[in-house]
Design brief:
Blueprint: E1 3-10, E2 15-21, E3 24-35, E4 38-40, E5 46-48, E6 52-59, H1 63-69, E7 75-88, E8 94-107, E9 112-119, E10 136-142
Parallel strand pairs: 6-8
Antiparallel strand pairs: 1-3, 1-7, 2-3, 3-6, 4-5, 7-8, 9-10
Length: 147
């Protein structure tokens, strides 16, 4: 199995889709990530010395909420399995490329400017005054990087 973990910038706003897989509808989040290779210049700044793009998919119930949270330019850490795909282009030539089947996507907090917490919805078995501190999903906005 070809495992991959990396940090990069989202090149576009991720797209949430519901697609038929066999007899069921499944959620998928499609991402395009640029993995840069910053090298120190010696003066405290960095120069990108060549990186690469990967298309990536995250399947399951995290797809929709992450599509609402993530945006173009955000810095993310991803982990998953590299898969080589082969297809035929418009001219009938066989092409191949790599894609990433994701297990996880996380924001790199170094660029996050603010976080807005949303309270968890309470179930009937858990009254609001139960003393349980609400857990939350974070909504982050960050400085967008070129990419």
């Amino acid at each position: 199995m070809n495992r991959f973990a990396g940090v990069g910038n989202l090149g576009d706003k991720p797209k949430h889709k519901t697609v038929p897989v066999g007899d069921e509808a499944r959620d998928v989040l499609e991402l395009r990530v640029y993995f840069d290779r910053p090298v120190p210049d010696g003066d405290g700044s960095y120069t990108d010395k060549g990186g690469f793009w990967l298309n990536a998919n995250l399947w399951g119930n995290r797809a929709k909420p992450l599509s609402e949270l993530l945006d173009k330019g955000m810095r993310v850490r991803v982990e998953g399995t590299l898969i080589q795909e082969t297809w035929e282009d418009r001219e009938g030539e066989e092409r191949s490329g790599m894609k990433l089947d994701l297990d996880s996507v996380a924001l790199e907090l170094v660029r996050v400017a603010s976080i807005e917490m949303r309270q968890r919805e309470h179930s009937a078995a858990e009254p609001e005054d139960s003393g349980v501190k609400p857990t939350a999903k974070a909504k982050a906005t960050g400085r967008k990087a070129a990419g």
